[in-house]
Every structure is written in structure tokens, then in C-alpha cells.
Design brief:
One of its GO terms (biological process) is establishment of mitotic spindle orientation. The protein is an alpha+beta fold and 174 residues long. Helices cover 23% and strands 34% of the residues.
Length: 174
């Protein structure tokens, strides 16, 4: 299945190839010199330029079609940092597609049927050579049990969720 953008560009290329300096329409193939030739006509240069554009577009589309959402995060560590605060460290997946962001969800139930909050993180940091992100949550209810999970994402969407370690915490006075 061909994408509409490639068909539009190829149609434009055929128009440029077929136009012969105002003299009307000729064949869709150019037998003249390439764009790099110093003696080529302006039309031949335009044809070469459009051919390069089509080739570049095809490579971009192929890259887009081969991209997929990332795998699960490698690790999700969580620490209670205060009476109503926790800190999560999210580690990017070791393999698979590129990760550009994380999504963290917290719930009062282990099955996440009641998601209390959600946050997207796109700022990165390094954890001794491993890339990831930190998420500080400061407005949790003291004494309430929270379950946390996170997923990695990119322009193609979100990967599967992974539970934090430990899978739940209770913010307290430490």
C-alpha cells in the first residue's frame, strides 16, 4: 500500500518531467543530462531535484513505517521521600525502539481500575551510564497505599506498562 504523500510527490515529478519548456507535454522520462551536469537544461535540473526529493521521502516513509513503540522500561525504582511524597527512577528499555518519554500512573488499587494520577516525563538524566528519568510526586495522601506503573513512549505511541519495585508504597513520616 502506497502512502498519499509519495503518490503526490511522484505525480509532481511526472509533471516536471513531462513539461518541455512551455512547448507542451512530452514523455515522462528524461533522457537528458543529470542534475550534476553543467550543460543540463533547467528542466533537467528540476527533474533531478524532484528525483532526489522522492528518494528522500521514500527513505523517510520507510523509517516511519519501521518505527514502533518502545518496549517496557528496564526498571522502575521507587522511594518514599516524605510524608506525602515519592520519587521514581525510570530506566529506558535496553533494546527495541527509541524512547523519548515516559508515562507514570499511580492508583489506589493493584489492578489500576482506579487511576488516581498520571504524569508524562520527557526530561532525561543519566544513572551511572544508563539513561532514564526521575519523577517526583509531592501531593500524595499520607498513609494511603499507592501502586505505581510506567511505560515508555515515542512518536509512534506508548509501549506496555511495567510495575514499580516495590509495586506499592505508603507515604508516611518515614
Amino acid at each position: 500500500m502506497r502512502s498519499a504523500s509519495v503518490e503526490i510527490v511522484e505525480s509532481s515529478l511526472q509533471i516536471v518531467k513531462g513539461y518541455a519548456g512551455g512547448a507542451g507535454w512530452t514523455s515522462y522520462r528524461s533522457s537528458g543530462p543529470s542534475v550534476t551536469s553543467c550543460t543540463g537544461s533547467e528542466i533537467d535540473k528540476q527533474v533531478g531535484l524532484w528525483e532526489r526529493r522522492v528518494k528522500g521521502l521514500r527513505r523517510m516513509i520507510l523509517g516511519w513505517e519501521q518505527t514502533k513503540p518502545p518496549d517496557v522500561p528496564n526498571r522502575i525504582d521507587i522511594d518514599v521521600t516524605g510524608c506525602s511524597a515519592v520519587s521514581l527512577r525510570l530506566y529506558e528499555p535496553l533494546e527495541g525502539a527509541i524512547t523519548t518519554k515516559f508515562k507514570v500512573q499511580w492508583s489506589s488499587r493493584s489492578d489500576f481500575s482506579n487511576v488516581v494520577g498520571e504524569r508524562e516525563i520527557s526530561e532525561w538524566c543519566s544513572f551511572h551510564g544508563c539513561m532514564g528519568a526521575v519523577c517526583n510526586l509531592n501531593e500524595l495522601i499520607q498513609g494511603r497505599r499507592y501502586f505505581f506503573r510506567a511505560c515508555a513512549g515515542n512518536v509512534k505511541g506508548w509501549g506496555p506498562y511495567k510495575l514499580s519495585v516495590p509495586n506499592c508504597v505508603v507515604p508516611s513520616s518515614k
